[in-house]
Write a structure and sequence with these properties.
Elements lengths: L2 E2 L4 H7 L10 E2 L10 E4 L7 H16 L6 E5 L2 H14 L5 E2 L13 H10 L7 H18 L10 H10 L7 H15 L8 H21 L5 H4 L9 E5 L8 E6 L3 E2 L5 H5 L5 H13 L2 E8 L13 E2 L1 H6 L2
Parallel strand pairs: 1-2, 3-9, 4-6, 4-7, 5-6, 7-9
Antiparallel strand pairs: 8-10
Helix pairs in contact: 2-3, 4-5, 5-6
Length: about 325
């Protein structure tokens, strides 16, 4: 298929440089002749990256009318993406972001307070019914495992949701809000968790992990920070190149487009893999997510384990000479 109904022709003219095989691609969608913003920035430093991305997002939204949900920041690897999202959130707390790593909750599928927290922190909505039922089921399974007699209560998923949905609090601190929520939930079930030392220990472990991650994130301790990740969709998406396949956004901002990151050093030094093909495939996926605008960033200041500065991805450098 050589017809593309997603991207403008200008966007296609960029990412067809990364095409490994196939026929030339032609834009056929309603935006095929749209004038696109396309750039490759090799001057922004790692120290200024968060400020640069924040300013770019606000310009796109405020001056060009692009909804936050139509903007995606894409990176080859997860950790730089999490670090960037946290940094952007610190300097612009009001900016809606859909990114991993912003909530202090630490995933622990064996901890009942992790599952209960998700229900307490999330808001009931029609588009979340299935997801919250799944969370309630996970919670019920772990409750039965750790409090065997709870099975005698005929506790249903609907009752779990009814209790967590009815919880309210004026507490502004995340940890205090959750403590109240946990107390409310077990009181409604007439369960005294002080009779279960293992559960008391589990709660202490959960709280300590949250506080450590809260400190690491540097985003504060408010309930709004704890609800990051559970808010209604609509923020700027932060996602890896491997996970963005099949998705589409009006505007894509690619970061950390450095040789040794994309492709990774493991691919470069492998005798069984063509690093040039890996590089082009990832750049193709990243670029082809964009409908109207495409920004590439190869920030300066990142160094290899040997202390050498990274260079911009070679294939991007060839196009934007």
């Amino acid at each position: 298929m050589n017809g593309n109904y997603r991207s403008s022709q200008q966007i296609i003219d960029v990412y067809r440089n990364f095409q490994i095989y196939g026929e030339p691609i032609e834009a056929k969608g309603p935006n095929k002749d749209t004038a696109s913003f396309i750039s490759f920035n090799r001057d922004v430093s790692l120290d200024n990256l968060a400020q640069h991305i924040k300013d770019l997002i606000l310009d796109l939204h405020n001056n060009h009318g692009i909804p936050y949900r139509e903007i995606a920041v894409i990176a080859p690897q997860r950790q730089p993406l999490i670090s960037l999202a946290r940094s952007v959130k610190r300097i612009a707390p009001e900016l809606p972001l859909d990114a991993a790593g912003l909530s202090p909750l630490c995933r622990d599928d064996n901890n009942l307070f992790y599952h209960l927290s998700k229900l307490i922190l999330s808001t009931p909505a029609p588009d979340k019914v299935v997801q919250r039922m799944r969370w309630a089921n996970n919670l019920l399974e772990i409750l039965i495992e750790k409090i065997p007699h709870i099975s005698n209560l005929n506790l249903s998923l609907q009752r779990i949701l009814k209790i967590t949905n009815s919880f309210t609090s004026t507490s502004v601190l995340g940890i205090e809000y959750l403590k109240e929520g946990f107390g409310y939930f077990f009181n409604k079930l007439n369960i005294d968790i002080s009779e279960y030392p293992e559960i008391i220990e589990e709660h202490a472990d959960f709280e300590n992990k949250c506080l450590r991650k809260q400190s690491k994130n540097g985003l504060g301790d408010s309930i709004s920070v704890y609800k990051n990740g559970f808010a209604k969709a609509g923020g700027v998406t932060f996602i890896t190149a491997h996970k963005c396949k099949g998705l589409e956004y009006d505007t894509v901002i690619g970061i950390s487009l450095l040789w040794g990151v994309i492709p990774h050093w493991n691919n470069i030094y492998s005798r069984e893999i063509d690093e040039n093909e890996i590089s082009k495939k990832l750049l193709y996926v990243l670029s082809s997510r964009a409908k109207s605008n495409l920004f590439f960033v190869a920030e300066t200041g990142r160094r290899t384990q040997k202390g050498r500065p990274y260079s911009a991805n070679y294939h991007l450098a060839e196009i934007f000479r």
